[in-house]
């Protein structure tokens, strides 16, 4: 194995752009990807026979193709490890990677690290969101990209944000339009009094084109886009799931479906990851949607910028001001969209599961009178203690604690010390690592 | 049909067809197998986020340590079972 200058974690838009840019500056990189193909969730390819054309704006396709080209042209300086998961940093500053293809944990000591692990979806707790058949919108979309097939049976999309529109249009174009899209916010109504946000959103021509593409498909398939609506509960029924929905006016409605996709926005992802900064052992930079959610195009720019930052820390002279400008424009657009899709928070009912990993409900939280901090909520109540390390409950737990007068940042639920390994690792893979430690050539 | 149509793995003892290059989760979904067995806290294993983050779709392959069904490519003859041992699930033990 090569001794690469830079470790890049994640082969989505930011990671791919980073390795290609590093190669331009003469630097070698080790690219670590959890899946068996590069591209990340956004550019997930169709598996199996034939092809599957996903409804996607043309500028998106062009940037993807240019990125893949840059990646393949830089191959000489890139070593890619597929089916490999970053699991933590050991006491001696070695970055540990679970190489699942080999069934062995491996370690690396790079001069710099670019963390490009992508975003996490935000999903607010609702009664029944833990049931089989209820997935995230991103989860439904990534599986659909992979199989080329929509889920069979009736689908309902609910929550908030532009991704619901994209998914609805893609499902419709593939022949199974959702029964409805329930949008909690009032993006169209708020456009009247959020003039500045509308202006800033419209300044980004690619976003306008994208919105028009999806809106046309929704119109063609006659999919109701219902704003001000939200899912109250999901219950198991004989033939699937029964969804109880309500409008802000109090009107209620029931949907009988087989699949529910929920989505309440995208959030940056730093859980358990080494903090950005110049450490004694390595320079660490975060890039892409994991650092700040700005979309795939901006993630490509951000990945390149991260690579240039690393190149500078290793003595190269490069100027990133053009990339800075492009990223600032993306920030403006995202801020405008966030304003238009602003929705009032919803308090979970007593029976709502809050912590999905441990199966803890709102009532369990209410019973937990002794806990007075994030630390105690985790250690005494086991909130955020499960395998997802709080990625799906930290916001809800922090909001519930706030109601009780305990204030902490959602990230505090995970504690000060990262809980490594970040993912399940087999003892056999760890044992293989311990054995290999005596043989120096096994260090990447 | 092409040769790939003959590929199978097993969920408990039920054969599940898959296409080359597909994840376990994709094939389970197509087969209508959304309930991945008892999990901690009285809940059930299930596909949710699709990118390895939520850890809800953990399954055990050939009785080995759990892996995410949404990340793991399906291979011929794999024998899948719920990640949590039946005994621990019944006793409500959280691992």
Q: What's the SSE blueprint?
A:
The complex is a heterodimer of chains A (444) and B (95).
Chain A: E1 6-9, H1 13-24, E2 29-32, H2 58-73, E3 78-81, E4 84-89, E5 95-99, E6 104-108, E7 112-115, E8 120-121, E9 134-136, H3 137-147, E10 155-159, H4 162-173, E11 181-183, H5 187-193, H6 195-202, H7 205-220, E12 225-227, E13 229-237, E14 240-247, E15 252-257, E16 259-263, E17 266-267, E18 277-278, E19 283-286, H8 296-313, H9 321-340, E20 353-355, E21 360-361, H10 362-367, H11 374-379, H12 394-403, H13 427-436
Parallel strand pairs in A: 1-2, 1-7, 2-3, 7-19, 9-16, 10-11, 10-16, 11-12
Antiparallel strand pairs in A: 4-5, 5-6, 8-17, 13-14, 14-15, 18-19, 20-21
Helix pairs in contact in A: 1-2, 1-8, 3-4, 4-7, 6-9, 8-9
Chain B: E1 8-11, E2 14-17, H1 24-30, E3 58-61, E4 66-68, E5 79-82, H2 86-91
Parallel strand pairs in B: 1-5
Antiparallel strand pairs in B: 1-2, 3-4, 3-5
Please describe what this structure looks like.
The complex is a heterodimer of chains A (444) and B (95). With 444 residues, chain A is of the alpha/beta class. In chain A, 34% of the residues lie in helices and 20% in strands. Chain A contains 13 helices and 21 strands. Chain A has helices at residues 13-24, 58-73, 137-147, 162-173, 187-193, 195-202, 205-220, 296-313, 321-340, 362-367, 374-379, 394-403, 427-436, and strands at residues 6-9, 29-32, 78-81, 84-89, 95-99, 104-108, 112-115, 120-121, 134-136, 155-159, 181-183, 225-227, 229-237, 240-247, 252-257, 259-263, 266-267, 277-278, 283-286, 353-355, 360-361. In chain A, the strands form 6 sheets. In chain A, strands 3-2-1-7-19-18 form a 6-stranded mixed β-sheet, with helices on one face. Chain A has a 5-stranded parallel β-sheet with strand order 9-16-10-11-12. Chain A has a 3-stranded antiparallel β-sheet with strand order 4-5-6, with helices on one face. In chain A, strand 4 and strand 5 (95-99) form a beta hairpin. In chain A, helix 3 (137-147) runs parallel beside helix 4 (162-173), helix 4 crosses helix 7 (205-220) and helix 6 (195-202) crosses helix 9 (321-340). Helix content of chain B is 14%, strand content 20%. Chain B has a 5-stranded mixed β-sheet, covered by helices on one side. Chain B is globular. Chains A and B meet through strand 8, strand 9 and helix 3 of A and helix 1 and strand 4 of B.
